Each structure stands twice: as structure tokens, then as C-alpha cells.
């Protein structure tokens, strides 16, 4: 039978003083507060990986920026992942990778790729006009937004704010 651990209190955490060596304060179910010699307090989640059964630590963040309640909530989320045989560390890395891909997939990048494909099927003059319109009207307002974050309302509001442009103002 496993050891039962008394859950930490906020007072115990605040009163934890640094020692010559780092030490852990256990909250239970794999959640620990690691107190370092320099006084830094880090939340760690210790678990067994689903398939290899090797022990691993997952860092949640620093106390007090990450409170006890939030650390417990993160622990619960990771326990739910483990119940589904998903390694929390691998899951977190996949999420970071997907977010990074989504942030680099901006409207301007997608529109320029589209223009490269489309320009081979239309006249050169039409391709230039299309790109010029995108550069003048679309990219300044929405070009830096991730493609998945653009909503119809943002596009319609941005369209209302376009300044009137005469043909003479177009750079060639």
C-alpha cells in the first residue's frame, strides 16, 4: 500500500526556507514543490511513463506565480492524460509544436503561397494587380494574424477601415 501524504497548505509553502541542498515537499499524487538553495520554489509532477514505466518529472512553473490551486489543477489534467495512456511530457511537446506551426502559418504566408500557385494560371498583369491589392489592403491589417485565428467579423471590420485608394496611388 502506498504512503498517504498530507496535502500542502499555502502557509507551509510560504514558510519553506532554502537549505544547503534542494529538497521536495510532497502534496500527493505525484505533485511536489522543489525548494532550491537559492530560494526558488518549483512545482514538479513525478509520474511513470505509460509504456516504459520509467519515472519522469514534468515542471509546471514557479511558486508564487503558479499557485497551489493551479498546480493541483495541472496535476489532475496530467493524471487524466495518464489514465488514457498518454505521456504528459510528449503531449506538452506536441502542443508546443502545433502552436508554433499555427503561429508561423499567418495570412500573409498563406496568401503568398496561394499567389505563387495562382500566378502561373493567370496573366502577369493580373497576378501583379492581385498581389498589389493584397499588399496594400490585406497584409497591413491582417497579414500577421495566424490563419486559424481570423474570424469573419475581423475581416468585415478591417474592410470598413480601408482608406479609399485611387488608381494613381498604386506602385508599379
Annotation field: number of helices: 6
Strand content: 15-25%
**Unreliable sequence segments:** 165-172
Q: Compute the gyration radius: what is it? A: 26 Å
Tell me the CATH architecture of the largest domain. 2-Layer Sandwich
Highest-level CATH class of the largest domain: Alpha Beta
Percent helix = 40-55%
Total domain units: 2
**Measured distance between first and last alpha carbons:** 78 Å
Structural class by helix and strand composition: alpha+beta
Explain what the structure shows:
With 172 residues, this protein is α+β, with helices and mostly antiparallel strands. The chain has 2 domains: 10-87, Double Stranded RNA Binding Domain (2-Layer Sandwich); 107-162. The chain has 6 helices and 4 strands. The protein has helices at 10-15, 68-83, 88-104, 107-119, 124-142, 152-160, and strands at 23-28, 31-35, 41-48, 55-63. It has a 4-stranded antiparallel sheet, with helices on one face. Strand 1 and strand 2 form a beta hairpin. The N and C termini lie far apart (78 Å).
